[in-house]
Amino acid sequence: AQKITQTQPGMFVQEKEAVTLDCTYDTSDPSYGLFWYKQPSSGEMIFLIYQGSYDQQNATEGRYSLNFQKARKSANLVISASQLGDSAMYFCAMREETGGFKTIFGAGTRLFVKA
Amino acid sequence: DAEITQSPRHKITETGRQVTLACHQTWNHNNMFWYRQDLGHGLRLIHYSYGVQDTNKGEVSDGYSVSRSNTEDLPLTLESAASSQTSVYFCASSESGSPNEKLFFGSGTQLSVL
């Protein structure tokens, strides 16, 4: 069964606008972590943001914030004030405590920022 | 600066050949992972290791093997390369017990099996 679901294969956003990338997950483990990684066209994988399942507040890192809705099992990434350099592939990922240290990934969403 | 290095960056091989992809990290991380990236599938876990002499199968381990003889290296071997193994391969590492245990990735190896 798919544990991480990213339903948007591709998205467009106008420069300087905000955009939300969707991610839903499936786990019965009470302890887990959620991640977002960015992959620009150069191919490297860049860590963006982390949310722990017990964290009370939504995580924020600069222009990135994670909209964590635990009951709905969603962990959407919000990028504020989009920039042309935000054009990239974005992956949602999860690590479950019962799964040890391995991280599993969704299929990704490709974001295109328009000037 | 600490880093994680993959080699080669690009590899072309023929079906049936044995291929080894190298991964070397200087983070001194116990945890190391191999993923393959394919369009529509994201990154899928092939094998992983939590320390020296420890190896575990991931979700797509058939046709691949790894060994961990020291902390720094986790080579990935394709025993008999198949066209279905054409992919981009990423090695990653993480630190046990860190607050978020985020992954540190290598630059990837583009493997083509003809």
Order of helices and strands of chain B: EEEEEEEEEEE
The outline of chain B comes out as globular
- Which chain pair shows the most residues in contact? A-B, 24 and 28 residues
Cα distance, first to last residue of chain A?
39 Å
| Mean residue pLDDT of chain A | 94
Describe this protein with a few key phrases.
heterodimer, A: 115 residues, mainly beta, six-stranded mixed beta sheet, 12 strands, B: 114 residues, 11 strands, 51% strand, globular
Please render the helix and strand layout as text.
The complex is a heterodimer of chains A (115) and B (114).
Chain A: E1 4-5, E2 10-14, E3 19-21, E4 24-25, E5 32-39, E6 46-52, E7 60-61, E8 64-69, E9 74-79, E10 88-96, E11 104-105, E12 109-114
Parallel strand pairs in A: 2-12
Antiparallel strand pairs in A: 1-4, 3-9, 5-6, 5-10, 7-8, 8-9, 10-11, 10-12
Chain B: E1 4-7, E2 10-13, E3 19-25, E4 31-38, E5 42-51, E6 54-57, E7 64-66, E8 76-78, E9 87-94, E10 104-105, E11 109-113
Parallel strand pairs in B: 2-11
Antiparallel strand pairs in B: 1-3, 3-8, 4-5, 4-9, 5-6, 7-8, 9-10, 9-11
Please explain how this structure is put together:
Chain A is mainly β and 115 residues long. Chain A is built from no helices and 12 strands. In chain A, strand 10 (88-96) and strand 11 form a beta hairpin. Chain B has no helices and 11 strands. Chain B has strands at residues 4-7, 10-13, 19-25, 31-38, 42-51, 54-57, 64-66, 76-78, 87-94, 104-105, 109-113. In chain B, the strands form 2 sheets. In chain B, strands 2, 4, 5, 6, 9, 10 and 11 form a 7-stranded mixed beta sheet that branches. Chain B starts with a strand and ends with a strand. The mean pLDDT of chain B is 94. The chains are: A mainly beta (115), B mainly beta (114). Chain A binds chain B through residues 4, 6, 9, 33, 35, 37, 43-45, 47, 50, 52, 91, 93, 95, 100-108, and chain B through 31, 33, 35, 40-45, 48, 50, 56, 58-59, 88, 90, 92, 94, 96, 99-105, 107-108.
